[in-house]
What does this fold into?
Amino acid sequence: MATAPEHVDVLIVGAGLSGIGAACQLREHHPTKSVAVLEAREASGGTWDLFKYPGIRSDSDMFTFGFSWRPWPGDRALADGPMILDYLRSVAGEYGDDEMVR
It folds into this structure.
């Protein structure tokens, strides 16, 4: 069964760090705009969900790498992949971004 095309005001490609950040900011600053996030994979999180090898971590400190409007909650400057993924998904959940992912 074919579905009718969906119209949105803003279409974001990718539910990684940048896509989640853009969706959060759009929801915050333009609440009347409709937004959808297209993600090719089954899960959000981009790099932090895709790569699972032992020891994966950010080489940027999380106080700089994290969202300025939602500061990194931990005290470890160099976080590992699972911690970053938890951060991204918790921010997405707070802003309702997970509802926008297609």
In short: The first helix runs from residue 17 to 29. The CA atoms of residues 48 and 82 lie 7 Å apart. The radius of gyration is 15 Å. Strands lie at 10-13, 35-38.
